[in-house]
Amino acid sequence: MPKIKKPKKKKEFPDHIYKHMEQIPSSMQSAYLTALRGRSMKASIKAFCQECTGWLKNEIKDCPSKRCPLHPHRPYRPDNEPKDRRILFRKERNE
Ligand code: SF4
């Protein structure tokens, strides 16, 4: 009996996306894929911050770029850090 070939599963993304994913640590690939699927704004911000820091979680937490529009929404923020940038800037101005 001839073997029936299963149809190849259709790729979800073009090859350059999979090529790019080879650089991303496996623990961080899910946020990237969720972001690409357009399913979560939170995952998109997380994936962007991960890529921005070269996939270093602690660098995101300690990110010094307060001018970055994503800074108040970045993942791994310390609990005591206010989201409102005006409060942070007031502290910098010693007000
Ligand atoms: S908040 Fe920091 S880590 Fe995230 S994108 Fe902005 S500069 Fe990069």
Q: Give the helix proportion (percent range).
A: 40-55%
* N-to-C series of helices and strands: HHHHH
The shape, in one word, is elongated
Q: Please state the average pLDDT score.
A: 90
Radius of gyration: 19 Å
Strand share of the residues? under 5%
Distinct ligand kinds: iron/sulfur cluster
Sheet/helix structural class: mainly alpha
Annotation, overall tally of beta strands: 0
- Report the sheet with the most strands, covering strand number, pairing sense and barrel closure: none
- Continuous helix count: 5
Describe the 3D structure.
By secondary structure, this protein is mostly helical. The chain is built from five helices and no strands. The chain has a domain of 65 residues. The mean pLDDT is 90. Bound molecules: iron/sulfur cluster (SF4). Iron/sulfur cluster binds next to α3.
Short characterization:
The protein has 95 residues and is mainly α. It has helices spanning 15-21, 29-36, 41-52, 57-61, 85-92. The relative contact order is 0.09.
